[in-house]
Automatic annotation (TrEMBL), chain A:
One of its GO terms (biological process) is phosphoenolpyruvate-dependent sugar phosphotransferase system. This is PTS system mannose/fructose/sorbose family transporter subunit IID. It comes from the Bacteria. GO terms for cellular component: plasma membrane. The lineage of its organism: Bacteria, Bacillati, Actinomycetota, Actinomycetes, Jiangellales. The chain crosses the membrane at residues 127-145, 151-175, 196-216, 236-254, 261-279.
UniProtKB/TrEMBL annotation, chain B:
One of its GO terms (cellular component) is plasma membrane. It is found in: Cell membrane. PROSITE patterns: PTS_EIIC_TYPE_4. It comes from the Bacteria. Keywords: Cell membrane, Membrane, Phosphotransferase system, Sugar transport, Transmembrane, Transmembrane helix, Transport. One of its GO terms (biological process) is phosphoenolpyruvate-dependent sugar phosphotransferase system. Its main location: membrane. The chain crosses the membrane at residues 6-23, 138-160, 180-200, 207-237. It is a multi-pass membrane protein. This is PTS sugar transporter subunit IIC.
């Protein structure tokens, strides 16, 4: 026991230059996270790939190295853009462990990984795929449809810039704070960020439905002498009512776990049928 | 569509997908990117841009969340763009090819991810002996499987699907063309529905209707709504005292 305590006392972090080098390496290697993606353990091979140079440096001994390799062969899955903090925290924990912090056993390291991957994936998915990308896509697709090459270019560059910022900032923060990451960014704060992103995402989705979905009906009926277009009547009640209904039907189906692939095919067919008979136009 | 064009387009699609695997998911396989690139190869950048933009809107909400299998937008976009250009048709015709191709393409990714599951056990054995090079080799085999799972079907469809599609398109009457326009208008609802289910949060859901009403009744654009919502969120978060930190598990559920 005393031996362990002394070992923990003399723990030293690498000097500043080594730290910067490690952060840079982890940031770049974070790009590899989804390599060898599989349905059994998702990003586990990619996570090992990302960590390999760090593990090799810390564990020259074959037995310890094998243990480290196996430690990171377990299930892992998060949003690839937010892996930075997890890579940083994990590398920092492995450094402590390699220097004798025996309380950092396999379970301790894995539980921190798991504790970070789910909330961060929540932020990443709602912020990137739920908010940022749809906004950019809506604007840039409009440009592209007008034949403007700036559409795809802006889309690509803006997403790239956001991704680079998230990766660089995330890895550095994770590595430097180490296990204190949760003190810097508590689960409650992570949850708040996710809620914030969800609010913006929901509002934007509502706006997308109202502006980009051009579902109308060409139906009209005769009332006395007048021919009244049904669409005009609908617009008086609630503009974009039909787009809203269409979206809510799809949403209800997906919430009931109907595969998106079937919903897509079904929508294509329903659109063809309703369009052919002039119910929608 | 010449052999070389089909080959190049399949290569571009498979590389764009590979970028998701080993280059940090830069969203290169989105229709808005693939459309113009495929258009350039097929000899019509303008149509590629328009088809890419149109398909981007249709698939706006489609993404891989937590290992689900969404429609394959990359193969759908590439096949739709390439075949509509080679048939000399517009964006609606691209849909005829894009949607079935995206649906069938779903199985390509499923296939690759399933096959790679067998590799994991080999990696386990190598890890137990600290054989890093072996694991790396296994990962590259996995990456090659992912690459081929996109490359081969795309190439085959482009090579052999062009004539069939051209026949179908030429046989279409005006009524069917109108029906296609309707389908094209309705399809983005799928993306929005997927988006909503991703963002699902019972307590916050009314915000969706707020955003909808703002854009439906006024001239607010999507960006306008986004700015307004972001400003409100920042104000709310700043004025709220953070709650006592709960356990990570409980926060993951929200």
């Amino acid at each position: 026991m005393t031996e362990n305590t002394t070992a923990t006392d003399v723990l030293e972090r690498p000097d500043e230059q080594q730290q910067r080098h490690e952060i840079r390496r982890l940031t770049v290697r974070g790009l590899l996270l989804q390599g060898g993606f599989n349905y059994e353990r998702f990003q586990n091979l990619g996570f090992w790939w990302m960590m390999r140079p760090t593990l090799d440096r810390l564990y020259p001994d074959p037995v310890e190295r094998a243990a480290a390799y196996q430690r990171h062969m377990v299930y892992f899955n998060t949003n690839p853009w937010v892996v930075g903090p997890i890579a940083g925290v994990t590398a920092s924990m492995e450094e402590q462990r390699a220097k004798g912090a025996t309380d950092l056993n396999d379970e301790a390291i894995n539980s921190v990984k798991v504790g970070l991957m789910a909330p961060l994936a929540g932020i990443g998915d709602s912020l990137i795929f739920g908010t940022i990308r749809p906004i950019l896509a809506a604007v840039c697709a409009g440009l592209a449809i007008d034949g403007n090459i700036a559409g795809p270019i802006i889309f690509f560059l803006a997403l790239l810039a956001i991704q680079v910022l998230m990766r660089v900032g995330g890895t550095a923060t994770g590595y430097r704070t180490g296990m204190q990451f949760f003190e810097k960014l508590s689960p409650a704060q992570i949850d708040q960020i996710k809620r914030g992103a969800t609010i913006v995402g929901l509002a934007v989705t509502g706006a997308l439905v109202a502006t980009l979905l051009n579902v109308t009906t060409p139906w009209s009926y005769t009332s006395g002498e007048q021919t009244i277009a049904l669409q005009d009547q609908l617009d008086l009640v609630l503009p974009a009512l039909l787009p809203l209904i269409a979206t809510m039907i799809v949403y209800a189906l997906i919430r009931r776990r109907v595969s998106p692939v079937w919903v897509l095919l079904g929508t294509l067919v329903v659109g063809l049928v309703l369009g052919y008979f002039g119910i929608l136009g | 569509m010449t052999l070389w064009q089909a080959f190049l387009i399949a290569l571009v699609v498979a590389l764009a997908y590979l970028a998701r695997r080993i280059l940090g998911d830069p969203q290169l396989e989105r229709p808005i990117i693939l459309g113009p690139v495929v258009g350039l190869i097929a000899g019509d950048l303008e149509t590629g841009l328009i088809v890419g933009g149109t398909l981007e809107l249709i698939f706006i909400g489609a993404a891989t969340f937590g290992g689900t299998a969404p429609p394959n937008v990359a193969i759908g976009a590439a096949v739709g763009t390439a075949l509509s250009i080679s048939a000399g048709q517009g964006a609606e015709a691209a849909l005829v090819a894009a949607v079935p191709a995206a649906v069938l393409g779903t199985f390509c990714e499923l296939f690759a991810k399933t096959v790679c599951s067998f590799l994991v056990h080999r990696a386990d054995a190598a890890a137990a002996q600290a054989r890093g090079r072996t694991i790396l080799g296994i990962i590259w085999i996995g990456n090659a499987i992912h690459f081929l799972a996109y490359f081969v079907p795309t190439f085959l469809v482009l090579q052999f699907g062009a004539n069939a599609l051209e026949g179908v398109l030429n046989a279409l009457s005006d009524d069917v063309q109108n029906a296609l326009n309707t389908s094209a208008a309705l399809l983005p609802a799928v993306g929005f529905g997927i988006l909503l289910s991703v963002l699902y949060n019972k307590a916050l859901f009314p915000v969706f209707f707020a955003g909808f009403a703002l854009a439906a009744f006024t001239d607010f654009t999507v960006i306008g709504v986004a700015i307004l919502a972001t400003a409100l969120v920042v104000v709310i978060l700043r004025n709220r005292t953070p709650q006592a930190p709960s356990s990570p598990q409980s926060s993951a559920l929200i």
